[in-house]
Amino acid sequence: MLINQDFSVDRSKYIGGSDIGAILGLSRFRSPLQVWMEKTGKDTSQADSLPLRFGSFAEEFVAKEYFRSTGFELLHDESAFIHPEHSMFCAHIDRLVMGDGLDCPPTKILECKTANPFSQGDWGIVGSDEVPLSYLCQVAWYQAITGIEQADLAVLFGNTDFRIYAIARDKGLEKMIIQKALFFWSEYVLKDIPPPAQSEADCHTLFSKSDPSRTVEAKAETLGLTKRLEILNSEIDSREVEISHIKQNIMSQLGEAEILTYQGKVLATWRAPKPSFKLDGKRLELEHPDLTSNYKIPVHNSRRLVIKQLGDN
After folding, report:
1. CB under 8 Å to 145, separation ≥6 — which residues?
2. What is the pTM of this model?
3. Is residue 16 within 8 Å of 7, Cβ to Cβ?
4. What structural domains does the chain harbor?
5. Which of 19, 22, 95, 273 has the least C-beta neighbours within 10 A?
6. Can you tell me whether residue 207 is helix, strand or coil?
7. CA dist list (Å): 139 to 43, 301, 312
8. Integer distance in angstroms from the first to the last C-alpha of the chain?
9. What pairs with residue 288 in β-bridges?
10. Would you write out the chain's pLDDT as a tens digit for each of its 313 residues?
11. Phi-psi group of 71: left, alpha or beta (phi > 0 → left; psi -120 to 50 → alpha; rest → beta)
12. 67-100 as b/e, with b when 16 or more CB fall inside 10 Å?
C-alpha cells in the first residue's frame, strides 16, 4: 500500500528500513536499544552528523551515476510504502527503477549508498548480492513491503569506485526479519521494556542513575569475570610499556629533528602542532569571582565502573 503521509516527521510511529539492521544487531552505528529509545519517545533528538548529511546529499549523485551506467529511468517518489499486514512497518525507497518507462510499473528498487574506501573488503563481487548484512536486510525489508522482486544497490566508495550489486527477493529472509521486527515491536516498544544492552554505551543509557543505598550480591561466574578482567588489564599495561619503549627509541633517534626517513620515505614525524589557546579558568575565577559565578553550571558525570580485588576496602 502506498500513502502520502510524511512518516519522517515522527519516526516513533513506525519501523523503517534504516531501523531493521539495528534491530537485528547488524548495524555499526545504532543498537536495538537506541532504536527502542526513539520508538518509545525517550530519545527525541534528531540524528544529525556529517556522514548522514553527506549520504543524503550524495544520494542524488549516486542515482545519476546509476542512470548513466544502466540507462534505466528512475522515479524519486517520497511517499511511504506500508506493509499490507503490519501498518507500523514502513519503507521509504531511494528510487524506483522504471525499466520500461515512467508509465509502466517499477521493475526494481534502487538503494543508494556511499561507503568508506577502506570498507571495500566488506563487499563482494560487483553484480552479486554480497553486500553488508545490514544493507541486505534493509533491501529485503523494502522488497517485503513493496512486493518488488528485484533490487539494485548502488554504492560509491570515496570518489573513485562506483559499483552496482543485484539483490533478488528472498522470502525466507523476509519472513525472518518481519518476525524479528514484530517481536521487537510487541515485546519491547508496545510493552515499554528495553531490549538487552549490547555495549557499555547501552549500559550507561539504561542505568545512568544509581541508588547509593542498594547493594547487589555477585553471581559466582561474575567473580571469574572480574579475575579475567584483571588479567586482561595487566596484559594491556605490559603492551603499553612496550609501546612506550618503542616510542622512546624513535624519539631518541629523531632528537631535535622533526622528520625520520627510511630510504627516502617518511617513516615518522615529531613536531609541535600549531599554537592553540585555552581559557585560564583558575585565573579568571581568582580575579573575577562575581563574573564566573554567573556562568557556572552543574556537570552530571556518568557512572564509573571500578573493579576491586577481594579484600579491598
Report:
1. 81, 82, 83, 89, 90, 91
2. 0.76
3. yes
4. 2-206 (3.90.320.10), 218-269+280-313 (no CATH)
5. 273
6. coil
7. 26, 40, 53
8. 64
9. none
10. 444 444 444 567 899 999 999 999 999 889 999 999 999 988 756 666 676 777 778 899 999 999 999 999 999 988 899 999 999 999 999 999 997 766 778 899 999 999 988 888 899 999 999 999 999 999 999 999 999 999 999 999 988 899 999 999 999 999 999 999 999 999 999 999 999 999 999 998 888 888 889 888 888 898 899 999 999 999 999 999 999 999 999 999 989 999 999 999 999 999 888 888 888 888 888 888 888 777 777 777 777 777 777 765 5
11. left
12. beebebbbeeeeebbbbeebebbbbbbbbbbbee
Cell digits for 141?
525489508
Residue with cell 583558575: 282
The C-alpha cell that represents 69 in the structure block = 551506467
Q: Find the length of the chain.
A: 313
Q: The C-alpha cell of 295 is what? A: 556562568
